[in-house]
Amino acid sequence: MSLFWRIFVLDAAGLIVAAALLLGPVTVSTPILPGEVLVVVAGLAALLTVNAVVLRLGLAPLGRLGRAMADADLLHPGARAVVSGPVETAELITTYNAMLDRLEAERAASAAGALSAQERERHRIARELHDEVGQTLTAVLLQLKRVANRAPQDLREELGQAQEATRSGLDEIRRIARRLRPGVLDELGLLSALRSLAGEFTTHGLTVRHDLRAGLPPLTEETELVLYRVAQEALTNTARHAGADRAELRLRPVTDGVELLVQDNGRGLGERAGEGAGIRGMRERALLIGATLTVSSRADGGGTDIRLRADAWTGGADTATPVGDR
Known about the structure:
Blueprint: H1 3-23, H2 34-71, H3 87-150, H4 153-180, H5 183-188, H6 190-201, E1 207-212, E2 216-220, H7 221-242, E3 246-254, E4 257-264, H8 277-288, E5 292-297, E6 304-311, E7 320-323
Parallel strand pairs: 1-3
Antiparallel strand pairs: 2-7, 3-4, 4-6, 5-6
Helix pairs in contact: 1-2, 3-4, 3-8, 6-7, 7-8
């Protein structure tokens, strides 16, 4: 029975009983007797109680729907309100769930387009840095070397310093270009790219160990890129914010897919409110390939675990490559 008919029937029953009492032999004395007061009060209380129970039961699904709407997060898809209650309420909850399905699909499509455009822009900038800025600095370095060979002795030290500054700038340009577009991922494969990434983040004060299992299932190019970018962002957060001196990068096969795990022994997430742009970016990338990302601090407060589970390629239009050195 719908909520409308529940309330209507309850109110109609109360009015019918009241009319029957007025038309029946029951009378109310003037002044009213104590026994009559007791009967009237008891009837009114019973009617109000039944009305309150019906409304409570009928509106409870709306309360659950409100809490589900408040907790909804498109970066944590899949949570849906339970369809229950009267017909009107059930239809409203069903419509809300359908709206969430549509919003998640639209967000995934728009995020895919945005991240694809971002990767193209990264590739363009990396190519320009390498081909234009890098070549210009290389030419400047060679010119400085020729000038230093012909310069007086008292100027050679300053020219040597200029050469070192130019060489450092060239190395930094190349490092930025590699981080913008990991050429090793395209040329040698995911495992080699992750090994190179671990070596890149192994600096003074931070040691990154890697455990990259061979024999992983075939993955699409999009999945490989997401795994690499999540590992890159996780290690970047570790190096910048965690205050850790050790980190570990793991990639291993699991049922129907692979699991990437980045651990550190830093401060952990602590009591920081919300998630930063880095973690939100990792979640958006995970959604592109239907992967599951979990971020947690260990119970002893000894670091953060970032875990990404992605499905293996099972055939279809997308291209896939066996994970390993190419």
